[in-house]
Amino acid sequence: MTSILELVGRTEMMILGLAVSLFLAFYWLVRGAPIGQSAPAEPSEAPSTGFRDRAAAFAVLGLILVLAGAYVAVAYGIPWSLLPFGVGYALIFRTISKYSSYRHVSPSLRRTVEFAQTSLRFTLLAGLLLIVNIFAFKYGGNPIDFTHDEAFTLSTLSSGRMQKLERTLHMTLVLGRDESARRSRDRVRQLADLYKRENPSKIEIKELAAFNPNQAADLDDIMKRNPDLMMSRGDAVVLEYGEGASAGRSVIPVVDLLQLATPGAPTAEGRLATAFRGEDAITSTVARFIEGKRTIVGFTSGHGEPSLDQVDPREMGLGLWKSRLASLGAVATDLNLVKEGVPAEVSLVVIVWPKAAFSESELEHLKKYLASGKPMIVVTNAQNLGGLQGLLAMHNITFDAGRILDPEWNAARQMDQIVTPPITIPEHPIIAALGKQSFLFPVASPLSVIGSAPLRQGESKPQVNPAIIAAPFLRTSPRSWSETKEGSYQFDAGVDAKGPLVVGMAAMERVEAINGAKPKPRLVVFSSPYMALNTTLRNDPANMDLLMNAVEWLKGKEESLGVAPKVHTAVLFTADPSLRTKLHLVPTIISVVLIVGFGVLLYLARRA
User: Fold this and answer.
1) pLDDT confidence of 308, banded at 50, 70, 90?
2) Of the candidates 76, 57, 65, which has an alpha carbon nearest to the alpha carbon of residue 123?
3) How far apart are CA 422 and CA 405, in angstroms?
4) Would you give the end-to-end CA distance of the chain in angstroms?
């Protein structure tokens, strides 16, 4: 039974069933009666019934073959469609030429000839429109993109990067056997074409099949230049910028480009949102090729921080972030402030979840580093500050008490696993390209700008650093609140702070508005110690984009900020195996019963 259902459910069988149904319906229309019934009586000078039936069959069969040729051309290629096209049009022309002389003596033959002529006009017009569309798409410039996820449009960042290419960028799609990568193959091809359209003279696209013996030599050659390709079992995009030993090279597995969108964001039942990150991966890699020099990023150690070398996505390390930095040409290294200060070559310091306090000497090293004008990222919450309160206060940033809870925007129905709602109007360059994304902030604490809250009775005015501008850029939903009671999950008015609450804040150095000068980035604070860990980045890949955008903004490279993924929402229909069997079996049985019943009724009617 299962094999029969699988056979019936195949696309080819469905197409065959549709063709038979169309033939029977059109034959009924042209002949004037279905198969098995006598056709309406015609004048005595009209040709015989068999002659008229054959004419109707030829006309209908010709149209069905032309439609089949169109399907074959789309599904299998134009060469395979030539046979059904040729036979179909031959039958239509034969019907028009042979039976036109009988139009005045036979109503059914008149209908047959008119049906054949209409089929000819319709198919030729459809073919002409198809050819015009192909030429317009190929030679008419950029297409107009009406898709919701802007699948046919590159971002201005990607377009600008392609225009700045000084050497040739070789993009090779290596086809493997992995089914998961095969599902994204068309999207990758389409994306490659979009890149080539931006700079045709500097971008070359090639496709190699790992299982094609005729391309074995080319495949061996590209593997020698890119050894990482041997580790990819499915499809992979190989990028090579330039020629020879100085060329930039990178291998991007296609299976990593299509991921689930934020799992914790509320969504309608039966909908699945997927994020295609192909543009971000390719543009980021090309940016690394163009930039050339490598940035040194120092992650503090010695205070219980997560391991920088732990790459297992199930473990609470920082290896995934380190790998992403490496893919963009940055070197992530451990920074031990006890043994030495911050080395001069380190251009960015990152502090993630310090469980122990920094010593006075270490804090002095960090202050000296910041005084030199270099930037910093802090990822922690109010319970794990490690003595950084004074350093944050220098940038007009402070942590408020409590942990943030949200009954609606959360992951896995855990109120402290905060998910930030999508931002409709981005307020900051860090999230300008990610405004429609949600981010996962487990066990977060609220942030605030020193001096922004109204003074309570008896409070003295806090000391504010006038040289620093602190700006919130990421908030929780209005349903959230900051819970100050241990173990409580209920909002207490007048005690707990009501959302939206700040979980991301950036500090900039104020400068005089002379010659168009802009504030200099100094500090970014994320108020969740878990948001940069492997486990969180695996569950919510958008967090990686947020972190990398913070890095690029602090480096003063707003033009390199990441590209938002293309999010596509599909409507799902889920059914257990029993229901799936019924969905296949019931329509089949009903169809058979209707056909047999119709035949029995026809037989009884003719016999009566």
Assistant:
1) very high
2) 65
3) 18
4) 39
Higher pLDDT residue, 571 or 439?
Answer: 439
Dihedral class, residue 62 (left if φ above 0, else alpha if ψ from -120 to 50, else beta): alpha
The pLDDT tens digits for 489-536 are 889 888 899 989 999 999 999 876 445 567 889 999 999 999 999 999
The packing angle between helices 319-327 and 542-554, to 10°, is: 60
**Whole-angstrom distance, CA of residue 506 vs CA of residue 462:** 19
Rg from Cα positions in the chain: 33
Distance of alpha carbon 291 from alpha carbon 195, whole angstroms: 19
The model's pLDDT over 46-66, given as tens digits with 9 standing for 90+, comes to 888 888 888 888 999 999 999
Within 10 A of 543 (CB to CB), how many other CB atoms are there? 26
CA angle (435 as vertex; 434, 439 as ends), nearest 5:
70
- Report yes or no: 256 and 537 within 8 Å, Cβ to Cβ: no
Three-point CA angle 141, 142, 148, nearest 5°? 160
Give yes or no for a contact between 449 and 505, defined as CB atoms under 8 angstroms apart: yes
Per-residue pLDDT band for 264 (boundaries 50, 70, 90) equals very low
Q: How far apart are CA 544 and CA 261, in angstroms?
A: 13
Average pLDDT over residues 166-191: 82
In the Cβ-directed half-sphere of 58, how many Cα atoms lie within 13 Å? 22
pLDDT at residue 148, as a whole number = 58
Contacts of 211 (CB under 8 A, 6+ apart): 175, 177
Establish how many alpha carbons lie within 13 A of residue 516's alpha carbon, considering only the half-sphere containing its beta carbon: 0
Q: Averaged over 561-573, what is the pLDDT?
A: 56
**Residues near 139 by Cβ (< 8 Å), separated by ≥ 6?**
none
Phi, psi of 475 (to 5 degrees): -130, 160
The closest of 169, 246, 249 to 205, measured between CA atoms, is 169
Residue 449 contacts residue 462 (beta carbons within 8 Å) = no
